[in-house]
Design goal:
The complex is a heterodimer of chains A (105) and B (475).
Chain A lengths: L2 E7 L8 E6 L2 E8 L2 E6 L13 E3 L4 E3 L6 E3 L16 E2 L1 E4 L2 E6 L1
Antiparallel strand pairs in A: 1-10, 2-3, 3-4, 4-8, 5-6, 6-7, 9-10
Chain B lengths: L6 H7 L4 H4 L10 E2 L6 H10 L4 H16 L22 E2 L13 H9 L2 H8 L2 E6 L2 E7 L1 H5 L3 E4 H7 L1 H7 L10 H9 L4 E5 L9 E6 L6 E2 L2 E6 L4 E9 L7 E3 L2 E6 L4 E8 L5 E11 L4 E8 L4 E4 L2 E4 L5 E10 L4 E10 L5 E10 L4 E10 L7 E10 L5 E10 L5 E10 L2 H8 L5 H17 L4 H15 L5
Parallel strand pairs in B: 3-7, 6-9, 7-10, 8-11, 9-12, 10-13, 11-14, 12-14, 13-15, 14-16, 14-17, 15-18, 16-19, 17-19, 18-20, 19-21, 20-22, 21-23, 22-24
Antiparallel strand pairs in B: 1-2, 3-4, 5-6
Helix pairs in contact in B: 1-13, 3-4, 4-10, 8-9, 11-12, 12-13
The chains are: A mainly beta (105), B alpha/beta (475).
Chain lengths: 105, 475
């Protein structure tokens, strides 16, 4: 059964910014790509290192793993370059009452 | 009347040593030689020399930051600590451009390649040749009929200029600049290497060859190769490398990316014979999509230290990966070689056959990874690594890693370490074979499963090189 969790007020995540939230020991990175919001698990599928604090490319809506350079598509969670080859989990983002929320399961 | 010599007679007839055949160096008569050390200015200068698009300049500068921020790896070999990145020339330009005729290559450089037999090999059995001297390719040619079929075989600098869209689509997608410290270094100062594109269904029957030569002392060579085999195509790329013997160290750090689209096959053969002052730290990686095959045939003889683990990511169903690796570690050398196969799709298959020979205190290491991802059911793989020690002072290590995330798979792993025993030698000597000959026979028998996979001309060269390495090893 999906659950909805709060991230932050909408005006606290400007375009080009990322916010980390934790839900049941899972870290999730929420990104604002030029006004569109996306959320992925903060874990590179290559070696399980943190992912969301890597270089965020707003123009292409990607994040680069700071450890070995795999670039992930924030919309799909799919790696666009090796060495990662398994997609990471993505989470639907909801805006309700001027608040950013995530649907998690 | 010409007499046809047998392969063994040819082998026996060749009796030069490395110093005479490869260890020579030419006078330095360069258009540009960067001062030692690496900084933003040098990277910008390289990009400016090559009149590159802005995105490539930015790519280089970002990679430089990554190289400077990353610590030197602490795994692999203690010899890594000997590398002084401030004591290296990162860019040396010997010629204005890559020529299409040997006659137009500067005389000094042409003489070098004549001595190494490259133009002759091109005439005899190659589809195309690239010859890189220091940082840049000085000669590049591909057979006209292949060009007419749409085959692209250029030096990487020309590839970027003439096929920018294609290069940009694939460049650094297999090995991103931040993959590791040496890939970051290559990404910031890359120069030369080959760009190959084979259109769908085209089979390049004879190999394409690249030859890499370092001439300058304390030189860094950082070529970048990208091969794309489109659907159902085939290409065999062969590379060879040598350098003069100097007392100070040189660095060779290439990045090689291979992309085999559905049904394609790429074979990549390396005969590495750097002089023993060269650090050879190379990142090689391939992807194979549905029904595609990638084969790495990797022969490492020279260098002070080689760290190289060609890998194949099997991303499509029924893709096949093959790694054949030989490493020969003599006095003062450490060959840390092996391979990685990642099964990421169902019914994929792979083999890794690695052989190392150590003598005179040399160290041969096998380092490998076999990974089967969840969902890659029906995957089959066999890993065999054998080591042969020729004396008491030499060393062999094996570092295999196997990760299996799926139940329905078939994986085999075998490893052996053997020593050339007195009884083997005695048996052969009792049949009238002198001791040094007997030892060569044992070594040749040991590596035969791999040399038989090389094109004839390279198998002969490989056997000859092994013979050279073996000289003086007995008694």
């Amino acid at each position: 059964m999906p659950q909805v969790i709060d991230v932050c007020p909408l005006n606290e995540l400007a375009p080009g910014e990322m916010r980390l939230v934790e839900w049941e020991n899972v870290e999730i990175g929420v990104f604002n790509c030029g006004g569109s919001l996306y959320a992925i698990e903060d874990r590179c599928s290559h070696d399980d290192g943190p992912l969301a604090e890597g270089e965020f490319d707003q123009e292409h809506c990607t994040v680069e793993c700071p450890r070995h350079g795999s670039v992930f598509d924030l919309k799909t969670g799919k790696p666009m370059t090796l060495p990662a080859y398994v997609p990471v989990d993505t989470f639907p983002v909801i805006i309700e009452d001027e608040t950013i929320k995530l649907e998690v399961e | 009347m010409a007499v046809e010599l047998t392969e063994n007679q040819q082998l026996a007839a060749i009796n030069a040593d490395y110093e005479q055949r490869y260890g020579f160096h030419d006078a330095e008569n360069y258009l540009y030689k960067a001062p030692k050390g690496l900084n933003r200015e040098i990277v910008e200068k390289i990009s400016e020399f090559k009149s590159e698009p802005q995105w490539m300049r930015e790519f280089r500068l970002k990679a430089l930051d990554s190289f400077l921020a990353r610590p030197q790896p602490t795994w692999g070999s203690p010899l890594l600590a000997e590398i002084d990145y401030d004591d290296i020339h990162y860019f040396v330009r010997a010629s204005e451009r890559a020529e299409r005729s040997w006659d137009d290559v500067p005389d000094d450089v042409k003489k070098t390649f004549d001595r190494l037999g490259i133009p002759e090999a091109e005439r005899k059995f190659l589809s195309g040749v690239g010859a890189q001297y220091e940082s840049e390719v000085v000669y590049h040619q591909v057979r006209e009929d292949l060009e007419q079929q749409g085959v692209i075989f250029k030096d990487m600098d020309t590839g970027l200029r003439e096929h920018e869209d294609l290069v940009r689509e694939y460049f650094a997608t297999i090995i991103p600049p931040n993959d590791n410290k040496l890939a970051a270094l290559n990404s910031s100062v890359w120069s030369g290497g080959s760009f190959v594109y084979v259109p769908p269904g085209v089979h390049v029957e004879m190999p394409l060859q690249a030859y890499f030569r370092i001439n300058t002392e304390s030189m860094g060579q950082f070529e970048r190769t990208l091969i794309i085999a489109d659907e159902g195509s085939y290409v065999h790329y062969v590379e060879g490398c040598t350098a003069p013997t100097y007392s100070s160290n040189s660095l060779h750090s290439a990045v090689v990316e291979l992309i085999a689209k559905p049904g394609a096959r790429i074979r990549y053969t390396t005969v590495q014979n750097w002089s023993t002052n060269v650090f050879n730290l190379v990142t090689k990686r391939a992807v194979a999509y549905e029904d595609a095959t990638v084969e790495w045939v990797d022969c490492n003889l020279g260098s002070r230290l080689t760290m190289k683990y060609p890998s194949v990511y099997l991303l499509g169903e029924r893709a096949h990966g093959e790694i054949l690796s030989i490493a020969f570690a003599g006095k003062g050398q450490h060959q840390d070689a092996g391979g990685k196969i990642i099964h990421a799709a169902p019914n994929t298959t792979s083999n890794i056959f690695a052989k190392s020979i150590s003598k005179d205190g040399g160290r041969g290491s096998y380092r490998g990874l076999l990974e089967i991802a969840k969902g890659a059911h029906g995957a089959r793989s066999k890993v065999v690594c054998d080591a042969l020690l020729l004396d008491e002072h030499s060393r062999s290590d094996t570092y295999p890693t196997i990760r299996i995330g799926e139940d329905d798979v078939n994986v085999g792993h075998e490893a052996t370490v053997s020593k050339v025993g007195d009884d083997q030698l005695f048996y052969l000597m009792s049949h009238g074979i002198p001791e040094d000959e007997a030892s060569k026979l044992i070594v040749n028998g040991f590596i035969e499963p791999i040399t038989k996979e090389l094109p004839m001309e390279y198998a002969v060269e490989m056997n000859r090189l092994i013979e050279l390495q073996m000289e003086g090893s007995i008694g």
